[in-house]
Amino acid sequence: MASHRQPTSKIEVLPPRNEAREHLLAIADILAKVLDTSIRIPGTSWSIGLDPLLGLIPGIGDVIANLIGTVILGIATRLQVPRIVLTRMSLNLLINGTVGAVPIVGDLFSLWFRSHARNAALLREAAQKPDRETHADWFYVAGIIGGTVALLLLTIAFMIWLVYRLWTILSV
After folding, report:
1. In whole angstroms, what is the distance from residue 157 CA to residue 165 CA?
2. 66 and 93 in contact (C-beta within 8 Å)?
3. Are 120 and 147 part of one and the same domain?
4. Nearest-angstrom CA–CA distance, 91 and 85
5. Which residues span the domain enclosing 40?
6. What pTM did the predictor assign?
7. Are residues 62 and 97 in contact, defined by beta-carbon separation less than 8 angstroms?
8. What's the pLDDT tens digit per position in 67-90?
9. Which letter does DSSP use for residue 136 in this model?
10. What is the distance between the alpha carbons of residues 122 and 39, in angstroms, rounded to a whole number?
């Protein structure tokens, strides 16, 4: 009696989860491109996206650009990238939003910094190598926090010095 075994296929079909993961990464890449590099400036090698253009709208433009950028952060959360990568991505958005709030200078900064492209690259790297070393991420986060604290302390010291100088000049 012969057994009727079905031949096993040597073609491996990837589970839908990997397909969904690639789809989400592609969405993040497209969003980053639209926000940071979608419009080529004629005659130059530079390109701009919606982020610096939206930043020209007083008050709300940078908020809108960063809200759109948080979609990439949401994708990273859904793909369960390491928390330190999420922190680094959040800091990129915070830096872009904070500096972007300064008229003109912030828009020029957004052209250079391209936080959404940085976040999409961080997301792709973390999603493809979930067990990667994160020492560089921790160093980056510590540097940003340390730099922010140092800048804040210098600003406070400058303000105290300025008030003191004005007080001595006006009290004479």
Report:
1. 12
2. yes
3. no
4. 10
5. 16-132
6. 0.71
7. yes
8. 999 999 999 989 988 888 888 999
9. H
10. 23
